[in-house]
């Protein structure tokens, strides 16, 4: 009897321990949202544990046969690896680093297993754990996507494009093939961004990028570099995989409006630069750079066009880079001087005034024309200190002459749009005027017609303020820019400078004569003084006198000269 009681007690103690262990294992199983499948090969039984229904809500597993139901739950390519894992003595899944993807298309499951063996080495029990790793996997995919693609357009990003282009070039080297790069830039994108907002700007970038993606293919890479810049590479171009074909398609597309989600219609134009391996460059980044340089040439020539790489473009570019470097040094060392070119009244050949023109002799003693370096200085911002230096030095010399000669003349200064756009421009100018105590009425600021048109509102506002102080404003190079007479009305200007190109041909060309005369008549009606630029011959002078042009500037009556010479000229006038 005692013996029996002892056995019952022992059994109940063992049961209690088993229940405790089971509780513990159940708890462990239920953590981390795992599911388990337990297979007993000896008894041919299976059991599902923990969060089974989270993974396979429609699959009930009661015996070994039911395991096949799981195949319908995973994407096709994972069926065989899963089968191996369920039935063989395998502990690892033979696929995608131990992961399977469920049919729902978004759940990624990591599968891991453990096996028990008998003394003879046969598998007896197997447990497979299913763990949801979708969050990690999807995040990882997103990161991978972002490493290769541009999120806005879905095109290759710059880094990946460079890698793929390097592959193209490597193969082209082996196969003696050609690789062409098209550098595509939307014209006036800044205006869209500034004028319509960056949301519209982004939409333009996106829509145009989506359009370009139609060219993407085995031999064509299409990428979005940044902002409004795209790059296309073509391996061995020909037929409908050629620059000409793609450019034609782009032209057709941009002539049709892009419809924004705001309902606005937008017409675009693009500038394209083309460079070819191996002709332009043999290295990937050099090739892209060449295409970019050529694209800038297209911009310079009036946008909305395509330009092809050639050697002079590169040498021009390299010369500009060298000028840019020297320019920074020159600003630092103040290696500039100023020449003054006299202007005369046509009627009596009396001196009207002089235009200050900057001169730069570089360290090698070579003169570099302002027509060459001023645009570069405008681009890199050095025009601001250079321009201020010209203003102050010219006014200083002018004051010296005035004191010696008491002549009533006008000092004309060329002002770049970049200077006008600076918030402190007017204050600085007024500061210099005050410092040298000059009469603002004796100063004239020249602004080129084309840059005035580009920044019309802001510059005309500043012109009005300057005129209120008595400073004269002159419209330079008239006829080379917008060339519309109608917008002249209401412009806050005093003087119109008729561009040299009109004067050059007015004697020989009937049409130019008609235009020149119309400009002079119109300017007079609007109350502007007229100055003809670049007058080189007596014949031109006579003609301009006849048609009533007020003033003359040109080599005929005086070249730009150093300040000592202009002082002599002024002394003679006394
Ligand atoms: P611009 O303002 O149209 O100046 C007139 C240019 O024509 C000057 O060239 C002058 O030397 C030249 N010129 C004058 N008369 C004749 C002529 O009868 N025949 C010929 N063939 N040329 C003549 P330059 O000095 O080389 O200046 C070129 C341009 O550089 C200027 O054109 C002006 O736009 C710019 N520039 C010059 N100095 C400055 C400056 O201090 N600031 C800014 N922003 N621009 C300047
Ligand atoms: Ca000028
Ligand atoms: Ca001019």
Structure in a nutshell:
The protein is of the alpha/beta class and 574 residues long.
Which ions and ligands are bound to the chains?
A: ligand C2E, calcium ion
CATH architecture of the largest domain: Alpha-Beta Barrel
Strand order of the largest sheet: 13-14-16-17-18-19-20-21
CATH topology of the largest domain: TIM Barrel
Number of domains: 3
Describe the structure.
The protein is α/β, with parallel strands linked by helices and 574 residues long. It is built from 20 helices and 22 strands. It folds into three domains: 32-137, 2-Layer Sandwich (Beta-Lactamase); 149-309, Alpha-Beta Plaits; 326-573, TIM Barrel (Alpha-Beta Barrel), CATH 3.20.20.450. An eight-stranded mixed barrel has the order 13-14-16-17-18-19-20-21, surrounded by five helices. It is elongated, with a radius of gyration of 40 Å.
């Amino acid at each position: 009897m005692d013996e029996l009681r002892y056995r019952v007690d022992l059994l109940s103690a063992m049961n209690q321990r088993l229940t405790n262990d089971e509780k513990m294992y159940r708890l462990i199983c239920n953590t981390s949202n795992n599911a388990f499948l337990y297979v007993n090969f000896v008894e041919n039984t299976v059991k599902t544990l923990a969060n089974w229904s989270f993974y396979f809500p429609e699959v009930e597993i009661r015996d070994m046969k039911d395991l096949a139901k799981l195949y319908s739950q995973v994407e096709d390519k994972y069926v065989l690896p899963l089968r191996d894992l369920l039935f063989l003595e395998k502990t690892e899944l033979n696929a995608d680093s131990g992961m399977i993807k469920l049919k729902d298309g978004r759940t990624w499951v990591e599968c891991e297993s453990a096996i028990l063996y008998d003394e003879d080495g046969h598998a007896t029990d197997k447990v497979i754990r299913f763990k949801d790793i979708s969050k990690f996997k999807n995040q990882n995919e997103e990161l991978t996507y972002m490493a290769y693609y541009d999120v806005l357009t879905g095109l290759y990003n710059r880094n990946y494009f460079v890698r793929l282009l390097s592959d193209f070039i490597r193969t082209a080297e082996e196969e003696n093939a050609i690789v062409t790069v098209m550098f595509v830039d939307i014209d006036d994108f800044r205006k869209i961004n500034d004028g319509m907002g960056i949301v519209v700007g982004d939409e333009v970038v996106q829509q145009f990028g989506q359009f370009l993606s139609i060219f993407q293919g085995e031999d064509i890479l299409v990428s979005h570099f940044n902002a409004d810049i795209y790059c296309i590479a073509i391996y061995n171009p020909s037929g409908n995989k050629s620059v000409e074909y793609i450019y034609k398609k782009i032209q057709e597309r941009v002539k049709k409006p892009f419809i924004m989600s705001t309902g606005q219609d937008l017409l675009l134009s693009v500038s394209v630069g083309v460079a070819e391996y191996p002709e332009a460059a043999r290295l990937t980044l050099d090739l892209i750079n060449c295409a970019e340089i050529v694209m800038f040439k297209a911009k310079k020539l009036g946008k909305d066009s395509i330009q092809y790489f050639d050697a002079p473009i590169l040498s021009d570019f390299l010369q500009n880079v060298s000028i840019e470097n020297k320019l920074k040094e020159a600003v630092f060392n103040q290696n500039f001087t100023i020449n003054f070119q006299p202007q005369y009244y046509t009627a009596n050949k009396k001196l009207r005034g002089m235009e200050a023109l900057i001169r730069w002799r570089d360290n090698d003693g070579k003169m570099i024309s302002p027509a060459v370096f001023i645009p570069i200085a405008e681009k890199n911002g050095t025009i601001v200190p250079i321009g201020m230096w010209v203003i102050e030095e010219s006014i200083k010399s002018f004051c010296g002459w005035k004191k010696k000669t008491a002549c009533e003349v006008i000092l004309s200064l060329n002002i770049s749009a970049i200077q006008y756009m600076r918030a402190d421009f007017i204050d600085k100018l007024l500061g210099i005027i005050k410092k040298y105590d000059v009469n603002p009425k004796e100063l004239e600021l020249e602004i080129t017609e084309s840059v005035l048109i580009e920044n019309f509102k802001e510059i005309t506002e500043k012109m009005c303020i300057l005129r209120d102080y008595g400073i004269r404003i002159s419209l330079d190079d008239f006829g080379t820019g917008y060339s519309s007479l109608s917008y002249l009305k209401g412009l806050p200007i005093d003087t119109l400078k008729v561009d040299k190109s009109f004067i050059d041909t007015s004697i020989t060309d009937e049409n130019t004569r008609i235009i020149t005369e119309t400009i002079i008549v119109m300017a007079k009606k609007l109350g502007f003084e007229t100055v003809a630029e670049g007058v080189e011959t007596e014949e031109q002078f006579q003609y301009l006198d006849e048609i009533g042009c007020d003033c003359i500037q040109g080599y005929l009556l005086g070249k730009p000269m150093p300040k000592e010479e202009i002082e002599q000229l002024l002394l003679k006038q006394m």
